[in-house]
Amino acid sequence: MIGCHLGRNFQVTVAGGSYQDGLSAVIQGNPPGMELTEQEIYGDLLLRKPGADELSSPRKEPDLPIIYSGINAADTIEGAGNKNHTNGTPLTILIPNLDRHFIHIKQYQDTNRTPRPGHASYASFMKYGADDDAIGAGIFSGRYTSTIVAAGYVAKKVLKKCGIEVFSYVNEIAGVKCPEVDHETAFKYTESYKNMRCDLDPFYQEVYVKGRITPDMRFLEKAAVMAQIEQEIDPIRAKAPKIVAEQVREKYNVHHIVNCPDIDCAEAMVQACNDISRTGDSCGGVVEVVVTGVPAGLGEPVFYKLDAELGRMLGIGAVKGVEVGAGFAVKDMTGIQSNDQMHSEDGKVVFDSNNAGGITGGLSSGQSIVTRLAVKPTPTIDKPQHTIDKYTLENKQLAAITRRDPTITARIWPVAENYTAMVILDHLMAHYGYQTLKNM
Fold first, then answer.
1. Residue 124 region, left (φ>0) first, then alpha (ψ -120 to 50), else beta?
2. Mean pLDDT of the chain
3. Residues 6+ apart with CB under 8 A from 180
4. Helices and strands in the chain, H and E counts
5. In the prediction, which pLDDT does 258 show?
6. What are phi and psi of 5, to 5 degrees?
7. Can you tell me the distance from the alpha carbon of 122 to that of 109, in angstroms, rounded to the nearest whole number?
8. Residue 48 CB-half CA count within 13 A
């Protein structure tokens, strides 16, 4: 399988599957000297994990990471203070699967002869044959996106040091669209939403705040704790505070489920999604990603254009379209409407609009980079559908009984955010190198 690698300077290779022992992300190109902990990585992972609310799959995976390599195990000399700092070697992050039980495996075994329409199960069977990892869809399951979030968090932390912020939010679910929100407001809202999720996540509190896993522990010690947690998933979840929408709104000024920077709109999204879910069906939506602080000129021409690289987010499961700036709306514009005219103010270039989404000719213009991802409805639904027996080619009917999400949109925004960070950092490293040589 050669499709599980991304990047030229900041490189990421992912592995694993939905019902294998776990998943992993191996990162090369991350700089040395950066303090990194499992707790902060989990702070992003908990945003996309299942079982967190009524819009996500009931699977109860905690998505707890273990940093396996690339971190100094001790101070390199006495008193150096560089324990738990990245050392420049490949960084490996493991994400064990802790909620995989025979009852769920049996559900897949009972339905795997009949591929789910809209899912990769037929195409992957034709590619890999009878040994295709069809339990939980393997690498084609949404679970693999946890590796993108883990690796992308590292990229995002580096970018932040360079003055670049990457954030994302839900723009639309089930036809309910968020009104236009300025980027500063959306960024502050998203940061508050993330804080709320950490504060109310029982595993974040039990595992990290209480110190059951710490950076000082060895891998085998952490693995032993993971084995304990595997048996405690339900008791730990039971410790979660009851989430009251009004209290969350009063304390954090966010919606308790959907990261949409308009709380009333977020509630309408939940209601519209639930109306569809009650019929056994699912719905899609749109996620928006914004990058601020990007220097002008970032990117490459022709085959490695920055917008083309961001278009690789079609590799995120369930994403069927990626648009930059005004996107498909440009077809209804004239040139004078589409062009982002510019003028000078106090020695700085100011643009009158941002229909290009901060990218022209494949290079950043210095404006905010804006992309939107179209997310299809969850293909696993509880409605009868026509399919076939993939071994005999007999016509069959299927109504899925496996665990599923009413919509994937509410869980994809952190994946898109961190995927974008990987692309931007990969280009930023090349940009810094090019500019240094040019100035010499």
1. alpha
2. 92
3. none
4. 12, 16
5. 96
6. -135, 140
7. 15
8. 30
∠ CA 43-182-331 to the nearest 5 degrees? Answer: 110
pLDDT of residue 107: 75
Would you say how long the chain is, in residues? 440
d(CA 403, CA 319): 20
Q: How far apart are CA 25 and CA 32, in angstroms?
A: 18
Confidence (pTM): 0.94
Give the CATH number of domain 5-439: 3.60.150.10
Band of residue 52 on the pLDDT scale cut at 50, 70, 90: low
Q: Mind giving me the DSSP string for 334-374? A: -HHHHS--EEEETTEEEES--TTTTEETTEE-SSPEEEEEE
Distance from the Cα of residue 99 to its chain's centroid: 20
CA distance 369 to 371: 7
List, for residues 97-133, the tens digit of each pLDDT value: 988 766 777 777 777 788 888 888 888 888 888 888 7
Give all strands (DSSP E) within 115-261, no chain letters.
165-173, 176-177
Judge whether 61 and 99 are in contact, CB under 8 Å.
Answer: yes
